[in-house]
Amino acid sequence: MFAIVAVHLHRKFRKAVAVRDLSLEIEQGEVFGLIGPDGAGKTTTLRMLAGVLKPTSGRAVVLGVDVARDPEALRMKVGYMPQHFSLYGDLSVLENLTFFAEVFRVPRGVREERIARLLGFAQLERFADRPAGQLSGGMKKKLGLACALIHSPQLLLLDEPTNGVDPVSRREFWGILSDLHLQGVTIFITTPYMDEAERCNRVGLMFRGDIVQQGEPEALRNLAPGEMLVLYTSELMRAEEVLPDFPDYLEHQVYGDRLHVFTPDARAAKPRLEAFLASRNIAVQSLYQDEPRLEEAFVHLIRQARAEVE
Amino acid sequence: MMQDALAAYAVEARDLTRRFGDFMAVDHITFRVRTGEIFGFLGPNGSGKTTTIRMLLGLLRPTAGEARVLGVDVAREPRAIAPRIGYMSQRFSLYPDLTVDENLSFYGRAYGLRGRALARRKDEVLTIIGLARHRARLTANLAGGWQQRLALGAAILHQPELLFLDEPTAGVDPVSRRNFWRLLYDLAGRGATIFVTTHYMDEAEQCHRLAFIHHGRLIATGSPGAIKRERMQGQVVEIICERPEVAMQALREEGVPEVALYGQRIHAAGPGLAGRLSALESLLKQAGAGPQAIRIIPPSLEDVFIANVKHSIP
């Protein structure tokens, strides 16, 4: 069973195409992460799937509901947390939850018990009476998530829910998402954090309105070009200039004060690269092999996609 | 005033302290930032990062202790350092209805640049931040990563020796963040010192040195490599099994402090886990989790950060 099926989904804003002919299938119970550069169309995709924005063309069926035909029914079935989720700052945590329970027509009989459960879930019991405006950033996000869960949705659509949140609060937030995942809830999340993408079952990389790669995080990580050598040198700029002349060179990326050099066979290339740099009078401080992360693959794939367009 | 252009330290904080009523926002912190270094200042929200920066900028008086910034005691002579430092805050204030060029003119004038000097410096900055071709564009129409670069441009117009950046890349995609960091390295290469806060651990990995602050206290300082080697309290174990939900429950009941799900794999972290691999395996077997693979993996900087923060809760 699929929680989300999108076929040739398309959205234009005047002349600009935000989402281009996008097709996608998300299985029930999956945690799917959508990553991509700013302006790739991630938020527009999510808004269409949440039923708050009509597609220009194409179809999407979410939890069995056609998003264009019955957006109202859809909104009652999915939990949607937009990037700028609006809580009522002067209302308390408890009052915010009660308000959303009203909006989503949670039956009065179950309301109290459910709110209590969500407060526990989000570790917000102690703050039930605190005005939402006075919560820390991380707690606000957890309250936002609790509000999106008020009607026990089977699908969560989360748009960069952890922006600007510190690592400890992000881990807590993901702890909650893991629990929901283990309870069978489908989660569709956009994120600029590559370590969060690693926590998904599947990841889609979006570029200029379409998903250009998708797969398990391991599979995407393997799309990094070959193996990786980490090079420290005090002559980084000069090293960058000469590297493309190195016979085993595939690509390089600057990472802070070091270079990531990609090559088909790192072990074989290492002594050759040392000799090559020595022949160009570039002193090597340190050179070793390391595993490419999802981030290196992301940078590579986006560069490649850009090169194909330009 | 005599200035030693090659002073070894751009920032020296000794027992720097700030109290708000009963609340100790910053509690006797001591650290030094070397000239020309990119120094990462990390900590959870509310740990005292911004309060520390405000004291270093001379905007807030310390309750106790001392901060010397570019050799100047900031509490005594806050005005003396203002022209020599740059600051880009979490919510940098660019004017969306002005063009790129107009925003730079505005900030340039605020720093006292005029006429030909302003025009020349704007040209230089536009080249550094890579927006020379877009100087006539409305700021509101720039992509997020470009706005960040423009804000950085505004902060370096007056050629500051020391730059304070408070979460400059929040919400920016990995490619734009790489480009932004490349710029920071460029500036450091020209001799500027950079003091930066971030919640991105992949950015923290790019700093020369780091300091972790928590509840107003420094809990670790050092290079990212040294912190990962020396400050991890315990080990990280990756577990693949048939029923992760059962395994997570069993590990938590066993008292393993950190249990997190990565796709279908579990990362468990805590002191002494390396010596208990076979015990953990039989625990998971007994619980019916169906363990298939269990191995020690190197901790990420985030693992180290979280382990340190959790253990230092007073």
Summarize the structure.
The complex is a heterodimer of chains A (about 300) and B (about 325). Chain A has helices at about 40-50, 70-75, 95-105, 110-120, 135-150, 165-180, 195, 215-220, 235-240, 265-280, 295-310; strands at about 1-15, 15-25, 30-35, 55-60, 65, 80, 155-160, 185-190, 200-205, 210-215, 225-235, 250-255, 260-265, 285-290.
What would you say this structure looks like, in words?
The complex is a heterodimer of chains A (310) and B (314). Chain A has 310 residues and is of the alpha/beta class. Chain A folds into 2 domains: 2-215, 3-Layer(aba) Sandwich (Rossmann fold); 227-291, Alpha-Beta Plaits (2-Layer Sandwich), CATH 3.30.70.100. Chain A contains 11 helices and 14 strands. The two termini of chain A are 39 Å apart. Helices cover 35% and strands 28% of the residues of chain B. Chain B is built from 11 helices and 14 strands. Chain B has a 6-stranded mixed beta sheet with strand order 6-7-8-3-9-10, with helices on both faces. A 4-stranded antiparallel beta sheet of chain B has the order 2-1-4-5. Chain B has 314 residues and is of the alpha/beta class. Chain B folds into 2 domains: 9-223, Rossmann fold (3-Layer(aba) Sandwich), CATH 3.40.50; 233-298, 2-Layer Sandwich (Alpha-Beta Plaits), CATH 3.30.70. Mean pLDDT of chain B is 90; it is low at 1-5. Classes of the chains: A alpha/beta (310), B alpha/beta (314).
